[in-house]
Amino acid sequence: MTLPTDPDQGTERTTTEMMVGQRLRKLRVSKGLSLRSLADLSGLNINTLSLVENAKTSTSVGTLQQLAAALSVPLSALFVEETVEKQVVFTPAHPQPTTEFHHTQMVYLAQNLSRKTIQPYLVTLKAGMGSGNNMIVHTGHEFVYCIEGQVQFTIDNEVYQLKAGDSLIFEAHLPHTWENNQPALARLLMILAPADAAEEAGSRHVSLEK
Predict the structure, then answer these.
(1) Is residue 3 in some structural domain?
(2) Is 92 in contact with 119 (CB distance < 8 Å)?
(3) CATH no. for residue 59?
(4) Counting beta carbons within 10 angstroms of the beta carbon of residue 140, is it exposed (0 to 12), middle (13 to 18) or buried (19 or more)?
(5) Does the reported pTM lie above 0.70?
(6) Rounded to an integer, what distance in angstroms lies between the CA atom of residue 8 and that of residue 25?
(7) Is 27 within 8 Å of 77 (Cβ atoms)?
(8) Distance CA 155, CA 157 (A)
């Protein structure tokens, strides 16, 4: 299937690749890791890591999640430069901090949040796009709500076809991938909750008093 071409897409993709490469190298060096050490931690080929750092290749969101887990940083750290951290974050509809990865658009909805125990993303997938071929494994839980279109999730060898209005929540240590296997655009709300989330706060938002 041939995807529609965008005259600005090549430039945007190159900019994203350069940004990710620079961020990856900075994070790796800050943690005192060699390329070989990061390859061992992430399970990725050292040549692949070198290509990513030098903006010589596109990479999938799944690969970025593997790198983030290996570096013990949130996924957003690979494409958002952290500034002053906040306790309350307001993200207006326009403009949003948007990043494109190989026909997958991700908007991080908690930029500069002081704690990373919750990591919300708005994900837009063109036809045939998804997390990549490699199974993703990380700590904590993952919540997904399908806003538009359809997305197929494979979790621990079980297949779930999400349509608009459907949701999933699962333990993120279970190997998983996701893909828009339909011809139409798909949009997801994806919330990652790392394992160090210390408190169940949902019940505090519901009053039991009549």
Answers:
(1) no
(2) no
(3) 1.10.260.40
(4) middle
(5) no
(6) 26
(7) yes
(8) 5
